[in-house]
Design brief:
Oligomer: single chain
Structural class: mainly alpha
Protein name: MloA
Bound molecules: adenosine-5'-triphosphate
CATH superfamily of the largest domain: Fido-like domain
Number of domains: 2
GO molecular function, one term: ATP binding
Keywords: ATP-binding, Nucleotide-binding
Helix content: 55-70%
């Protein structure tokens, strides 16, 4: 069966769906509010995006620990595991996507290609050769064959681009649209690889485009991992039955649940920052600064070079700050090879959840 072009000719706004849309939108609005109450919220992107990258990559069986990831960020000798590198590529793709959409708040096929390119580190572009099928991971059976024809893929992507950006095509709530966009994107399966992760990046970027979030910080991937069987089943089920309601409810419930979890994480970080700010400022009048505090929260694991750069101080001064903070229990000092690094353990524990 070929893929339908968008908008879909069905009434998707059932009572149940609208109810979910309503509560999910409330949760998103609260999250947006909590994030904007942090004056330097952008520093959170690093820590929070890493979380999403780790979870999203895990769906592709790229399993990493937080410890590995944060160490990889430090680029110290001997810790660049392949997995951590994959996750770094995901972060780069998400950040690149965020930059691309930020100015004009549109998402084009071209930009989607750039995101996938950053993620997969190849420029194969949209599929041009046949042969791609989706199989059941356990049985190896083909469950779905996406379009094989290059021109058809191109046309479906152009249609998707219009649906993403032109609200005159459909007045559905953005959350319903996001669920449709995700399904459509995964069904077109426009690339040879990275379709799942690119699709999950599009989800969060779409929320930013629609002003439901200011920063791309909604770890929807965690929800998808936790409900992975249901995810695959519903993707397939919609195609076979055209029964959209369970899929829409699944995705929108995910948005709501994860928004509520993220609100808690952001509030915990905010509280810890405020505690650190007051204690560090009181204890070290001479060297406390907002930039110093930001550095400790931008990188759950930090190193002398980061501090040097962020604060514009000498290596010796940066080392002195970090060692003093470690001596007094604000950070934990650790060693890898010859190099020292410093862990904000309380932040690390919040992000571990
Ligand atoms: N039956 C199906 N119908 C439509 N899409 C599907 C189906 N089964 C899987 N998919 C989608 O295909 C994605 C996998 O595609 P691909 O392997 O290209 O992406 P990936 O990013 O490398 O992998 P992953 O999503 O596992 O991290 C899944 O995440 C899912 O979104």
């Amino acid at each position: 069966m070929s893929i339908q072009k968008l908008p879909l000719p069905y009434d998707l706004e059932t009572k149940q769906v609208l109810k979910k849309v309503n509560t999910a939108n409330k949760a998103l609005a609260e999250l947006k509010g909590v994030v904007s109450s942090i004056p330097n919220a952008a520093i959170l992107i690093n820590a929070l995006v890493l979380q999403e990258a780790k979870d999203s990559s895990a769906i592709e069986n790229i399993i990493t620990t937080h410890d590995d990831l944060y160490k990889a960020e430090l680029s110290l000798e001997g810790i660049k595991s392949l997995e951590a590198k994959e996750v770094q590529n995901y972060i780069a793709a998400l950040k690149h996507g965020f930059d691309l959409i930020s100015t004009h708040k549109v998402l084009t096929v071209n930009q989607i290609q750039k995101i996938q390119e950053t993620l997969e580190k190849n420029n194969a572009g949209l599929r041009a050769n046949p042969g791609t099928t989706l199989t059941n991971a356990t049985t190896g059976q083909v469950v779905y064959t996406p379009p094989q024809n290059a021109q058809e893929i191109q046309e479906l992507m152009t249609n998707l681009e219009r649906f993403i950006n032109d609200d005159d095509l459909s007045d559905l709530d953005p959350l319903i649209k996001m669920a449709i966009i995700h399904h459509q994107f995964e069904s077109i399966h426009p690339f040879y690889d990275g379709n799942g992760r690119t699709g999950r990046i599009i989800n969060v970027l779409y929320l930013v485009i629609k002003d439901l979030l200011e920063l791309p910080i909604l770890y929807l991937s965690r929800y998808i991992i936790a409900n992975k069987t249901e995810y695959y089943r519903l993707l397939q089920d919609v195609r076979e039955t055209n029964n959209w309601e369970p899929w829409l409810l699944y995705i929108i419930t995910g948005v709501e649940n994860i928004a509520n979890e993220t609100i808690q994480v952001v509030k915990n970080i905010q509280q810890l920052m405020s505690e650190y700010k007051h204690s560090i400022r009181a204890q070290y009048k001479k060297f406390y600064s907002q930039d110093l505090l930001n550095n400790l929260f931008k990188h759950p694991y930090t190193k002398i070079e980061f501090m040097e750069k962020d604060l514009g101080v000498s290596r010796k001064t940066a080392a002195n700050y970090l060692n003093t903070l470690a001596n007094d229990g604000f950070l934990k000092k650790a060693k890898l090879g010859q190099a020292n690094y410093y862990i904000n353990e309380r932040l690390y524990n919040i992000l571990l959840l």
